[in-house]
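Deliverable D2.4 — example input (structure tokens):
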């Protein structure tokens, strides 16, 4: 007969860590709980699945597998896998479980068939890419440059006639139209809005009230390129590994006589930063000379739990996150389904966290490569839209006044080489780098809980034959590697730096 074993010390630590997360969430204000609910839920899903796998004896017999999808979705998924001759492909099943029923129907009706004989990618990877690209075809600009008018037209589904009229407007009139447009009223009576704009007064005493007759789209685009943000509001920079961008921003704001602070953050600890960047102490000193505040070990998805951000609710006028990445996992490409969910959730949880701290009308800018396969552009724009951040423009990175700063990899490689030293990112070109620009337009309504991309189950990872699992036989070594990956994912969800 099996007997219950005493839990290992590391398992007790995991349980205690999970309890700490719950205690932290209880301590924060009610208005901030939604900002961290997604991260805590994600960690709990991982933790419960891992506990189920490491349970022994009667405890394991009592554990019941719970379905992650509804009955209709499960039937459709099984039908697709049977049709493709891939009923035993658990990773491909995981990919399909991330789809809603209408998407599963569309996939089934499209005639898509994964290439089983592809020499480079598995059926699961190919299908995940196909699904992402299908979604992105309906998105404005395809991830590339998108001016204010094109973004506005796509958002309100306007026709080419209205776009042509918008492009003839000057700065003052275009701003008025963009601010006062009512989709229900003005789609059929656009001329009345144009008449109102012509009679409107300029905004005296502000930068918005100058160059009234300049081409509207160009003038507004200059605001986004020259970083003419709210001079009195604080600005936060997240994930700035070597803090060079934050210093660039602080100097820029000082030159424009802004009085708002720059809050510079890194995900890594100061000890790690000193190992990787010999100049980091000088950079921090320079930032402090510009009256910036510098914080280390800040997880941008968990700022509601961070004491350094208490009192900043609703006060950030500008937020920056350049080239977000959830961290490389050895042996896997960023786009692989077993690790890519982390990149999508990074954006979803980031924008949900910002809702509590960005002031209405505040600007959020996320720089990324339009061809990135980790944090895809659709993850950025889609997550922003879910959280009421309006996509107002996509600016080519090289057109941005703040693009000249010391880029870094944000991992161990920075200790011995940097991107600007000729060691560029693979499969990414500088002319494909974009700055996705958003404005916070809260409706005042309570949003539903943040959707998250579910992580693969323990058994799904253990059954994988890609990356580090390739050519690895079944047994303890495979189970131990799976367990180490799962624990890493849990650490990431707790805001602990890995890699």
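Example output (designed residues):
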């Amino acid at each position: 007969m099996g007997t219950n074993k005493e839990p290992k010390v590391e398992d007790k630590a995991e349980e205690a860590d999970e309890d700490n997360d719950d205690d932290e969430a209880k301590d924060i204000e009610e208005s901030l709980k939604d900002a961290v609910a997604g991260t805590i839920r994600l960690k709990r899903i991982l933790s419960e699945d891992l506990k189920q796998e490491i349970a022994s004896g009667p405890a394991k017999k009592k554990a019941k597998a719970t379905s992650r999808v509804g009955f209709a979705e499960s039937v459709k998924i099984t039908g697709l896998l049977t049709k493709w001759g891939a009923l035993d492909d658990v990773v491909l099943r995981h990919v399909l479980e991330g789809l809603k029923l209408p998407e599963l129907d569309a996939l089934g009706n499209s005639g898509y068939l994964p290439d089983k004989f592809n020499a480079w990618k598995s059926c699961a990877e190919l299908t995940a890419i196909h699904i992402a690209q299908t979604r992105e075809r309906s998105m404005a600009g395809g991830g590339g440059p998108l001016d204010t008018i094109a973004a506005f037209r796509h958002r309100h589904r306007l026709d080419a006639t209205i776009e042509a009229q918008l492009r003839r407007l000057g700065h003052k009139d275009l701003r008025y139209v963009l601010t006062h447009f009512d989709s229900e009223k003005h789609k059929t009576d656009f001329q009345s809005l144009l008449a109102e704009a012509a009679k409107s007064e300029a905004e005296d005493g502000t930068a918005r009230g100058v160059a009234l007759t300049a081409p509207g789209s160009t003038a507004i685009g200059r605001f986004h390129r020259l970083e003419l943000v709210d001079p009195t509001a604080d600005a936060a920079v997240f994930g700035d590994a070597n803090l060079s961008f934050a210093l660039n921003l602080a100097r820029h704001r000082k030159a424009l006589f802004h009085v708002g602070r720059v809050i510079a953050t890194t995900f890594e600890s100061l000890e790690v930063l000193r190992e990787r960047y010999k100049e980091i102490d000088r950079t921090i000193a320079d930032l402090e000379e510009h009256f910036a505040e510098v914080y280390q070990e800040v997880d941008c998805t968990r700022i509601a739990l961070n004491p350094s951000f208490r009192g900043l609710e609703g006060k950030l006028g500008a937020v920056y996150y350049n080239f977000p990445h959830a961290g490389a996992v050895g042996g896997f490409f960023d786009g692989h389904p077993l690790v890519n969910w982390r990149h999508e959730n990074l954006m979803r949880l980031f924008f949900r966290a910002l809702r509590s701290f960005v002031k209405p009308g505040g600007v959020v800018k996320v720089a990324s490569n339009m061809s990135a396969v980790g944090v895809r552009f659709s993850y950025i724009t889609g997550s922003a839209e879910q959280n009421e951040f309006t996509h107002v423009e996509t600016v080519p990175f090289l057109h941005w006044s703040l693009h000249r700063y010391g880029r870094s990899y944000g991992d161990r490689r920075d200790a011995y080489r940097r991107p600007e030293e000729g060691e560029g990112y693979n499969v990414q070109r500088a002319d494909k780098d974009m700055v996705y620009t958003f404005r916070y337009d809260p409706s005042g309504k309570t949003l539903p809980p943040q959707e998250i991309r579910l992580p693969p189950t323990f058994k799904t990872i253990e059954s994988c034959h890609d990356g580090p699992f390739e050519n690895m036989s079944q047994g303890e070594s495979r189970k131990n590697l799976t367990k180490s990956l799962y624990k890493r994912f849990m650490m990431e969800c707790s805001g602990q730096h890995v890699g």
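Residues 462 and 478 are 6 Å apart (CA to CA).
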